[in-house]
Design a protein that fits this description.
This protein has about 350 residues and is of the alpha+beta class. Helices cover about 25% and strands about 20% of the residues. The structure holds ligand MTE.
């Protein structure tokens, strides 16, 4: 998240390393290389190299995160994304390298490259999740038990960060609604709260004296938002398990909200009657609301929200694009906010 306003930031700070590199490569090697990179990022072309029918399998040669054998069985049978919105977009898919090297995950540090550089010690296996609060089946569940009943599917969603950059990411996972039903919330459950792991030994951002977040990182959704079919529990991307920096082993994806709602590496899910406190709202309530719906008409106090930088920036992709209400998912979610003043409930 931005602490400085965009005009204070040097281009070298806001341009991801990989984009820099591909730009330099282009200057050195001519258009052949960029044409190849652009083609590799096209959904249609990715399809041609498809493993198991996925729209976006991991590109050859990328290091694979380790996975236990039961994970491999799960990942052997993934339902590919359909060809139509909202679970698919025909926009260019952000290359694997950018999705996994340009991250926000403050537990590993505040720079975009910190999560991939500093997560070498992090272990997502074994993993358990505490289910608590207004629910018929509270308890500590290991990840295998949580995932067992759910078939995995691919969803290609836009991710719009509140910092005004965006990506298109091919997630693997299952609807959050299915997980919620599994634990049978009571009629008192009006909100769902999520917490991230706190492990100072393997998460250097937590040890840092410059850390601004009060750990654990927390997020929350209203129950109807959590049950919306778009809301997704991701356990993978590009056909493979999640890398640490993207929130292994399990993270939320709420595509119509700013990226900070999509909490990573979840260890607790708490069903509540009242609205939970959330990390960024606690830190700067004037700037980051509980709802955090993507909205080009409601600007951040320090920068505009009506356009975004689509990553990566190449010669062939128009990098500055218009931001859409609810990140382009208004047909699916606008009814959740009927009658609400979106400027007040930002
Ligand atoms: N979850 C935790 N636990 N810690 C974080 O710092 N950053 C959020 C969100 N989830 C964050 C987090 C923000 S600001 C964004 S934009 C997205 O993760 C980025 O997800 P990505 O790195 O997979 O693209």
């Amino acid at each position: 998240m931005l602490i400085k306003k965009p005009s204070d930031i040097k281009p070298s700070e806001i341009t991801p390393e990989s984009v820099y590199r591909s730009r330099r490569q282009f200057l050195n090697d001519g258009s052949k290389l960029l044409l190849g990179a652009a083609a590799g990022a096209m959904p249609g072309i990715a399809n041609a190299q498809n493993r198991g029918g996925l729209k976006a399998p991991a590109p050859a040669g990328v290091p694979r995160p380790e996975a236990a054998s039961w994970w491999a069985d799960k990942f052997a049978d993934i339902k590919p994304a359909p060809d139509a919105e909202p679970y698919f977009t025909g926009e260019i898919i952000t290359p694997y390298e950018d999705v996994t090297r340009y991250n926000n995950f403050y537990e590993f540090g505040m720079d975009k490259s910190d999560p991939s550089s500093n997560s070498g010690e992090y272990k997502a296996d074994p993993w358990s999740v505490e289910i608590a609060g207004e629910v018929a089946r509270p308890g500590n569940y290991n990840l295998e038990d949580i995932l067992k009943p759910h078939a995995l599917e691919e969803r290609i969603y836009r991710l719009r960060c509140v910092e005004a950059w965006s990506m298109v990411i091919p997630w693997i996972g299952f609807p959050l609604a299915d997980l919620i039903k599994q634990f049978e919330p009571t009629s008192k459950a009006k909100y769902v709260e999520f917490e991230t792991l706190v492990d100072p030994d393997t998460m250097p951002g937590i040890r840092s004296r410059f850390a601004i977040v009060k750990w654990p990182y927390r997020e929350g959704l209203r129950m109807d938002e959590a049950m919306n079919p778009l809301t997704f529990m991701a356990v993978g991307l590009y056909g493979d398990v999640l890398p640490a920096q993207n929130g292994a082993p399990m993270r939320l994806v709420v595509p119509w909200k700013y990226g900070f709602k999509s909490i990573k590496s979840i260890v607790k899910i708490n069903f509540r009657e009242t609205m939970p406190n959330t990390t960024w709202n606690d830190l700067q309530a004037q700037e980051y609301g509980f709802f955090a719906n993507v909205n080009p008409a409601v600007h951040h106090p320090r920068w505009r929200q009506d356009t975004e930088r689509r990553l990566p920036q190449t010669l062939f992709s128009r990098s500055r694009i218009d931001t859409r209400l609810f990140n382009g998912y208004a047909d699916q979610v606008a009814s959740l906010y009927q009658g609400m003043d979106l400027a007040r409930y930002y």
